[in-house]
Amino acid sequence: MIDLRSDTVTLPTPAMREAIARAELGDDVYGEDPTVNRLEAMAAAMMGKEAALLVASGTMGNLAAILTHCGRGTRAIVGAESHTNLYEAGGASALGGVVLTPIRNQDNGELSLDELRRELAAPEDDHFARAGLVVIENTHNRCGGAPVAISHMTEVADLAHRKSLPVHLDGARIFNAALALEATPAEIAAPADTVSFCLSKGLACPIGSLLCGSREFVARARRTRKVLGGGMRQAGIIAAAGIVALTTMVDRLAEDHSHARALAQGLAIIAGINVRPVARRTNMVFFDVDGGAAAARRFEAAMRERGVLVAARDPGSFRAVTHYGISRADIDRAVAMAADAAAETFAS
Ligand code: TLP
What is the CATH number assigned to the segment(s) 11-248? Predict the structure, then answer.
């Protein structure tokens, strides 16, 4: 199978398996796992923050961030299309009593600054939940994997900070953003007070994300992580793969971006397939097929029969993600199979 559903399907590299087997371990709840401590120090340095905390997943990283920043009954202002708003099972509300206030995302992943200004201008009034946080996402998953300009992030942060509100960056794919924006991860994270990023997407680790921020914030987030049941013991097993990822898997993301460009170009010339344009493509291709939901179902099944998996999104639309383990030959094959599947879909 050529599995393009997500970069989360990546399997660990041989070097990761080797590092996992040899990892020096301790009890991380006591702060005594040397491999976790090494990974957290590396992550903090790469993000330009004082400290970092290893968590089980991107969802846990964002949740721990929101619960640490926000008190019960406060509002986190998030993009309507953001992962936090749509795909994190309402955790911040369910577990932290935090109200998510969605505001519009532009097609390029930026937040509507007008709506943000309006939200932030809400008067101190007992009717309203107090604002506690602004969340941004880069790269922006649902907005085509678009890298969001640092200048925009700075504008958002300036507006938030003027109201003494912190900013959290969901940087699940911050290394893809860095590559596309020709910037360092630290430059991208700089406008935000805290940032989470994932080891288990394009970097191919089996598990793990890091939440980074000031020493004081991370100490509080460590407590939140414990509350969430996320205090792990010999977590160096996870961290060992993370260290391999940060040292060997970042530069190769360029290959994924070039594969995504090739895939987008290949799909774009197939009749009945419409590729959603993005200004700077990272590792994702969003497309829809003519004929609505029924045609889309036929297309997806025809792709599956031909050994290619893509993720169904909104009715009639799909996402394909390139990643470690997908070669240029796989992309060429996926395009050929898509042409075939489209011909079958629209013939019937
Ligand atoms: N995204 C997954 C799905 O949940 C949609 C994917 O396949 O892309 N932030 C962003 C921007 C993400 O894309 C994801 C995962 C997360 C956070 C959550 O990470 P995990 O899956 O580790 O909890």
Answer: 3.40.640.10
